[in-house]
Design goal:
The protein has 711 residues and is α/β, with parallel strands linked by helices. It folds into five domains: 2-103, GIY-YIG endonuclease (3-Layer(aba) Sandwich), CATH 3.40.1440.60; 114-170; 188-367, 3-Layer(aba) Sandwich (Rossmann fold); 369-417 and 476-611, P-loop containing nucleotide triphosphate hydrolases (Rossmann fold, 3-Layer(aba) Sandwich); 621-706, Ribosomal protein S10 (Alpha-Beta Plaits, 2-Layer Sandwich). Helix content is 30%, strand content 23%. It is built from 20 helices and 30 strands. The protein has a seven-stranded parallel beta sheet, with helices on both faces. The protein has a six-stranded parallel beta sheet with strand order 16-26-25-17-24-23, with helices on both faces. Helix 16 (556-568) links the parallel strand 25 and strand 26 (579-584). Helix 6 packs across helix 7 (215-228), helix 16 (556-568) packs parallel to helix 17 (590-596) and helix 17 (590-596) runs antiparallel to helix 18. The protein starts with a strand and ends in a 5-residue tail after the last strand. The relative contact order is 0.08.
């Protein structure tokens, strides 16, 4: 027997190798198992991805099989090959992206946790008092945990005599406690949307529903429908913070029939959940981006909530787009895909408008609750009044809501205390030693941190350039706003950003505590802007509402509109009247004006015309070709060689922008060419040729990114 093995060699486009399977291993050998094989003078690990029928070279024997059953199904084996072709990435990176850490090719460190139970096999006559005490435990249960049995000597005697039988039950690391909930009856509008999704013959449905329109309840009913048909479901959310409330709702309905996958789980927890899914013990998988690779079979529906979010694009190899993977999996299982959002991406809405997607819209909140009233505050006027952080209206409404025992959410999309530290004498800005980027000041531990590479240092007392002691902080972040709020208001305040949620379970704790009214004000970055549902929140305030407009990105207006509309939608989702305040220095920008009226259609019509004139998506596709180098001159030479090659190979159907270079990050420079195109058949072949054959210096590497998020 011969098999084709993908070995653990981190080459760009590594090959598979043919190995023989010795007779003593042939019964255990299946496609999708990990194996240990000889490679040169060493033994390495690999993955069996196919059978082979002959080999032009003399083969060597597989040494060992690591798995009792395949870790990859036939579907996922083929998906890995497809990803390698689509994204021009290595096969090994494709497969490893699908696995929890415990199942990486050479990792067997994480063990399954077991709990010992005892089962009553037969009765005995005239038991001793100690034996009777143990046997009485089995009156109300067939199996008893060893934790409940104290007398180990008598327990051993009962086992030795065949009265009790010892059994090991797997002890999952995640807590599965939940409160049972009832399915809600759908409103007329929700029910219409539900039936339109079920009855469409299109692969993808775009569900555009205003904030608070009850998209989650439609998801619940759709998942319930596929479970009734003995099929399974994958439900994806863009942020870990959004899993808390969604999991609570789904667990309340489906109990332990769901598994959870996201990066906040420990390696052991993720390993447990992966095996529960693979063994068929659950019908629903809920998680962030990587949950799309869960080893679940017979999929009936894939739901991608807040589909417009950037986090659905993987930025490390393989640079996959979650929707691409969902499409491949849905086609394999003949499943439906639902994309949900109050503010769909322009690309998705454009496809829905021309009929490529089924379009379903919910234009009102549940029970006709009104959308929040939005006020746009020009901070240029407020600065003249001496209000640099909160406007007069914001201060008044915060006091009003506190008096009414209602809750407030405040968003500022900046971590830390201040954006940067500057010398007031020489103008020097303190920068990261690894990046051409200013350090952010964190007052809580008096450190300066780089939010790009992670470098941190103690804040100096004097300017390192001129020795002046006059160092001043500029800009504001969540820490500074938190300090300001404590000084200004008598309120219970909780901060939710990357710094306050580093400890395990903090996302869930903050959300649950705020939901249970342990705090009056939730202050946070954009992780609080979408998908969360708090009954008592009646006021939302956005600080620096135009910050995304300053980013050099063709999607900056779209990002601004989405963020403002989404966060405003957290207010007034139940009985209280919602109000949102957007503080900005650019109150006349169309993205801000349209967000005031929750007017997605007008924003879409305006933005789509701009995209058409500039020939940006959805009117073209983009691919970024990058050279990442530790040396500026080397990287510059390499990218110019590639640019020249592309211009010679590509005709006028393609637009080549660049090359350009970004600031140094983590001691590397990123040189970039952007290519606009519509048909990628010829381009894909040329880029693949560059990856395989370009002679790049050792301190540089080529990076190709289809549908890039960061330009």
């Amino acid at each position: 027997m011969l098999v084709r093995v993908l070995v653990e060699v981190k080459a760009l486009k590594e090959k598979t190798f043919i190995y023989s399977v010795p007779k003593n291993l042939q019964d255990r050998l299946e496609i999708g198992v990990r194996v240990q094989v000889p490679f040169g003078k060493r033994n390495i690990y690999g993955l069996v991805i196919d059978y082979a029928y002959d080999s032009e070279y003399e083969t060597r024997d597989i040494l060992d099989i690591l798995d009792d059953s395949p870790i990859f199904s036939k579907e996922l084996i083929e998906l890995g090959k497809k990803m390698s072709e689509m994204y021009l990435c290595s096969l090994i990176s494709s497969y490893e992206s699908m696995l929890p850490s415990a199942l990486k090719f050479n990792n067997n460190n994480i063990k399954i946790k077991y709990e010992t139970f005892y089962k009553l096999e037969k009765s005995i006559e005239n038991p001793t008092k100690g034996e009777k005490n143990i046997l009485d435990l089995f009156v109300s249960s067939k199996e008893i945990s060893s934790k409940l049995i104290k007398n180990r000597a008598i327990l051993k005697r009962l086992v030795d005599n065949g009265v009790l039988k010892k059994e090991l039950h797997e002890n999952y690391r995640l807590d599965y406690n939940f409160i049972k909930q009832d399915m809600k009856v759908l409103t007329k509008a929700q029910n219409t949307a539900y039936n339109e999704i079920l009855n469409t013959d299109k692969l993808i449905t775009l569900l555009r529903g205003v904030t608070g329109s009850g998209k989650t309840e439609i998801y619940v009913h759709l998942v319930n429908e596929v479970i009734q048909k003995n099929k399974t479901a994958i439900v994806l959310v863009p942020e870990i913070s959004l899993t808390t409330q969604l999991i609570d709702r789904f667990r309340g309905i489906f109990g332990n029939n769901i598994a959870v996958l996201h990066s906040s789980l420990s390696d052991g927890e993720r390993y447990d959940e992966w095996r529960r899914i693979k063994s068929g013990k659950v019908s629903v998988v809920i998680g962030t981006r990587s949950a799309i690779f869960s080893p679940i079979n017979n999929i009936g529906i894939i739901i991608i909530d807040e589909e417009h979010e950037d986090t659905y694009k993987q930025e490390n190899n393989p640079k996959y787009r979650t929707l691409d993977i969902a499409i491949e999996r849905a086609k394999y299982s003949n499943a439906k895909i639902v994309l949900g959002s109050a503010t769909p991406s322009l690309e998705s809405y454009a496809k829905a408008k021309v009929g490529r997607y089924n379009l379903v819209e919910l234009l009102e909140r549940v029970n006709s609750i009104s959308l929040p009233k939005v006020y746009i505050i020009d901070m240029k006027d407020e600065m003249k009044k001496g209000n640099s952080i909160l406007s007069s209206l914001a201060i008044n409404l915060i006091n009003d809501r506190l008096n009414r025992k209602e809750q407030i959410m405040i968003l500022i999309n900046r971590r830390g205390y201040s954006n940067y530290i500057m010398c007031n004498e020489c103008g020097n800005v303190l920068k990261c030693q690894n990046c051409d980027i200013s350090l952010t000041y964190h007052k809580s531990n008096d450190t300066l941190r780089c939010h790009y590479c992670g470098y941190a240092t103690v804040k100096p007392n004097v300017c390192p350039k001129c020795g002046s002691k006059y160092l001043i902080s500029k800009g504001i972040g969540t820490e500074k706003i938190e300090e300001y709020l404590y000084d200004k208001f008598k309120a219970r305040i909780v901060r939710m950003d990357k710094d306050s949620t580093t400890n395990k379970g903090m996302h869930e704790k903050i959300i649950n505590d705020f939901n249970n009214y342990k705090y009056d004000i939730l202050l946070g970055t954009q992780m609080i802007s979408k998908g969360l549902d708090f009954k008592k929140v009646s006021l939302v305030i956005v600080l620096n509402g135009d910050s995304n407009l300053n980013i050099p990105d063709y999607r900056s207006a779209e990002k601004t509109f989405n963020l403002l509309t989404q966060v405003s939608g957290r207010a007034g989702r139940n009985d209280s009247v919602g109000v949102s305040i957007i503080q900005t220095y650019n109150p006349s920008h169309y993205s801000i004006i349209y967000s005031k009226n929750h007017d997605y259609i007008s924003f879409y019509n305006k933005e789509i015309q701009i995209r058409k004139k500039l020939n940006y998506p959805p009117f073209c596709k983009l691919v970024a070709v990058r050279i990442i180098s530790s040396d500026y001159d080397t990287g510059n030479n390499e990218i110019n060689k590639i640019c020249k090659y592309l211009k010679n190979k590509l005709d006028i159907k393609y637009t080549i922008l660049g090359p350009s270079v970004s600031l140094k990050v983590n001691n590397t420079y990123k040189f970039q060419i952007i290519i606009k195109y519509k048909d990628n058949d010829e381009l894909h072949s040329i880029l693949n040729d560059i990856q395989l054959n370009a002679k790049i210096s050792s301190n540089s590497k080529i990076d190709i990114d289809f549908n890039p998020i960061k330009l």
